[in-house]
Amino acid sequence: MFRKTSGAILCPSCGRLTNADAPVCLVCGRRNPGMWGFAGPLRELFRRRSFTDVVTVVCVALYVISLLLDPSTALRPRGMFSIFAPSDQVLFALGATGAVPARVGRWWTVLTAIYLHGGLLHILFNVLWIRQLGPAVEQLYGSARLVVIFTVSGVAGFLVSNAAGIPFTIGASGSIFGLLGALVAFGRKRGGLFGTMVLRQYGQWALMLFVLGFFMSGVNNLAHAGGFAGGFAAGLVLSLAERRAETALDHLLAVALVVLTAAGFVLSLWATFLGG
User: Fold this and answer.
1) Tell me, what's the pLDDT at 243?
2) I want to staple 160 with a disulfide (CB 3.0 to 4.6 A). Which of 91, 224, 226, 262 is the partner?
């Protein structure tokens, strides 16, 4: 995967042939279609890598790491919903969010907490939902837009719960509700028979899961509501894959969010072990 700064490329907006060094696309008029030579590599990156698989691997890896860092606490029996639960200290060190971490300036935890989980059933259910909903959102919006929707909705959910004073929270459920919100937004934008079917199916799923959350202990329903709202808003703003191909801007935004999330984990470890 290398930069291409000369010769013919596919415009990231219209998908037609143009020149990599052209100031504007010769077909659609997009400015700087070559994106300084990175348009092609960015497209290939999202074509070859499934974000759903990446999220699955990262969540599982971080969960295993959180258990290994304090195995005595993880193996302590504490009820069905706390089977193999990492300690709060370990989760805080890895990037858990909430009003308490926010109060001490750990702003980046609204990103990192998405990938942390508090027990075996917690991560099992969340990963299953991610693998169910992620490919659907990717098909309807595009791979880079999936990254944006997943991240933005997770952040939105945590911002709502942090503002409400939830002291300590983790998990990808806000992002999961964001995926549902984006699918509902697709149904509204798409319209017609197919759009109505999508709206009805995923709207019912969202309602069912949200109501179910009130009957389970330890569920952050505020993050669910905020995540759904964030995903719905992102779904309304972003273009549908069938109407407009993903642009270099979509890819750059997705990469920026991934890099910012990775930087958040570095900041969490730095603040815990070196920053005091």
Assistant:
1) 87
2) 226
C-alpha–C-alpha distance, residues 260 and 110, integer Å? 11
Three-state DSSP class for 236?
helix
Is 3 domain-assigned?
Answer: no
The region of weakest confidence among 30-34, 80-84, 96-100 is 30-34
SS (H, E, C) 112-175: HHHHCCCCHHHHHHHHHHHHHHHHHHHHHHCHHHHHHHHHHHHHHHHHHHHHCCCCCECCCHHH
| Residues spanned by the domain of 35 | 8-42
Contact 234, 223 (CB under 8 A): no
Among the listed residues 14, 8, 6, the one whose alpha carbon sits nearest the alpha carbon of residue 31:
14
Lookup: tokens for 26: 């010769």
Shared-domain flag, residues 19 and 146:
no
Tokens at residue 177, please?
A: 């509700």
Cβ-contact 241, 140 below 8 angstroms: yes
The pLDDT value given to residue 215 = 86
pLDDT value at residue 144: 93
Q: How do residues 170-206 score in pLDDT, each as one tens digit?
A: 999 999 999 999 999 999 999 899 999 999 999 999 9
Give the pairing of strands 17-19 and 8-10. Answer: antiparallel
> What's the domain count of the chain?
2
Could you list the active site residues?
Answer: 173, 224
Model confidence, pTM: 0.83
**Residue entry with tokens 């806000």:** 174
